[in-house]
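Appendix C reproduces, verbatim, an entry submitted by the partner laboratory led by Prof. M.T., so that reviewers can inspect both the input and the predicted structure.
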Amino acid sequence: MRGRLVIAAIVAVMSLVGYVGTRQTNPVTGESQHVSLKPDQEIALGLQAAPSLAAQHGGRSSNARGVALVDAVGQRIVTRSSAGRGPYRYAFHLLDDDRTINAFALPGGQVFITDALAKKLRSEGQMAGVLAHEVAHVVGRHGAEHLAKGRLIQGLGGAAVIATYDRDRPGRTVQNAAIAAAVGQLINMKFGRDDELESDRLGVRFMAESGYDPRAMIKVMEVLREAGGSRGGAEFFSTHPNPQNRIQRIQEAIQKEFPNGVPGNLQP
């Protein structure tokens, strides 16, 4: 028993030291983050994963006009806002999926939006709201953070299993492993919600800096709320917090960005 506890303690300490030792300062947000990947590794990872992700949603869209709009709005955001100060290489993709309402980003700058979501947007500003939010995920290095947290949780979970192993009651060991996994999932869920809210805040800033009215992001939340009961809407809600809960946070971010009111010359 003592030997198992020593081994478990060593595994736990190594996991914690490895996690704490990965701290880096984000060049855009100024936030200190636990990230083990370098930016060029994030870019490579995103490029490697992009074809498979696109294939899951029908591949790239054949709608030339829609493809051009997504690319133009995305590039305007990264070239005119502080998002462009980061080291990432952005590419914006419209996917040939007219059933799944969603948008997502991979580490390093690969950003995707489905046809199903794009068709529900009513202005260029609303498209900017979606893409600015996804760019913020890249800038915030949320994917790389999740990888680092995942390794920490895996290490601590392994230590818990080692410490509680009972050869006379193997069922209890399995139960403890399941509890450790559940705790890890809860931690990741919390971080996921925090990432979405940070992306909304950063998205407001990036929209305003690139000349878009950030209030269009509220309109996007209303579109998503209305789509919530559809089959495609369920996909979005599995990866993003409820839009109704985000609207107030977006309004607060806009108020903080423009305490004297949103300028009238921003594109809706």
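The longest helix spans residues 170-209. Additional entries are available on request from the coordinating office.
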